[in-house]
Amino acid sequence: MIDVLPQLDGGCVNYWEAGNWGLNEAAPPAGPKIAPLHRRVHLHLLGRSRSATSPALRWGEAPTFPDFEARHRWARANQRLDATECGAVVARATALLHEKYGLRPDQVATGGPCTACGYPTPLDPGRTTPLCSECRA
Questions:
Q1: Residue 77, pLDDT score
Q2: DSSP codes joined into one string, 36-71
Q3: 32: Cβ contacts below 8 Å, ≥ 6 apart
Q4: What Å distances lie between residue 55 and 2, 50, 60, CA to CA?
Q5: What is the mean pLDDT of each run of 10 residues along the chain (137 residues)?
Q6: 3-class DSSP assignment, residue 19
Q7: DSSP 8-state class, residue 3
Q8: Is 112 within 8 Å of 128 (Cβ atoms)?
Q9: CA 12 – CA 50 distance, rounded (Å)
Q10: pTM of the entire predicted model
Q11: Most buried of 33, 73, 89, 100 (most Cβ within 10 A)?
């Protein structure tokens, strides 16, 4: 992200495995969840910049997230990276996985731009063209 997004110049990236919202009783399927059966790797990558205006992303402080029920309202105030920006991040991360960390091509998920919206999308088993979950819905 830092290598390819100009808005992060001089900034940093916070990352961690999360996914707590998937265990919320209101998350599909509705009801109580048994963690080993419902948790999935959910990696947050948050570009951090001194010029951030969101109180949830203040420079020098830990980012904060809302409760599950407020997630959509909270997200409306944020601007998504566009398909080109996301594609640049995926391409750079893929290159680093191969060049710096020595992963073979079969060790990195394949995919491409979603055929409907253009966002980078992993290729689901059994599909020949990528289609993101938002466009599938």
A1: 81
A2: HHH---EEEEEEE-TT---GGG-TTS------GGGH
A3: 25
A4: 21, 12, 11
A5: 90 77 86 83 76 86 89 87 93 93 89 92 83 87
A6: coil
A7: T
A8: no
A9: 9
A10: 0.70
A11: 89
